[in-house]
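Lay summary. Proteins are chains of building blocks that fold into shapes, and those shapes determine what they do. In this project we predict the shape from the chain. Here is one chain we studied, written as its sequence of building blocks.
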Amino acid sequence: MNERLKAVGTINQIPTEHPSQEKSSHSKTFGQNVFGKIQINQNLPKKIAVNWLAAMDGCEAIDRNHLDSIADALKKWAVGKGATHYSHWFQPLTGRCSEKHNSFLAWKGVSGTPIEELDARQLLQGETDASSLPNGGLRKTAAGRGYTIWDPTTPAFLWENADGITLCIPALFLSWMGEALDSKIPLLRSEQKLSKVVCRLLKMSGKPAKRVFSTLGP
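And here is the predicted shape, written in a compact code that computers can read:
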């Protein structure tokens, strides 16, 4: 019994963090694994950053000439934080998220020098076997193609698990015929339609707006 009492007494003597310290720590680390607006401005030239931020707000399309610079900035940021792989992250009609992982590791030149690489093609489009998902289950494997397309309106983020750290690139999932195979494309289409209709209503009310969007809270 004496040993148990000693153990309890020792536990009670362990200092606990003050709530104010926790709040300070949380504010400094909040969003550190998300390539959001702050990271865009910090890691990209002003012209490219302005274009991407405008695309996030639905005001412009991403200039294709900027894709290599964006991909390189994402790679450097992710690798600098310990990431070894990247993945297009999408929402097929399974009620869950899906990922297809690829390594940053590539071979350069005839000598085969190992380098970390993420180019515009890899950022923009990926391919997954849609025959294993509900949308493609009735097709042959070769005909069940699904493609993931980068969604620049959603920030990329890092996901850490027992296997390491992965750069998750938010993506849309569609068939080779352009049909929506996920939950996100219908959502974005609804948002676009909603914005168009409400902007017309606001204009008629004498309070014009360029864009209207819904939110799910802070």
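What the prediction tells us: The CA atoms of residues 89 and 170 lie 5 Å apart.
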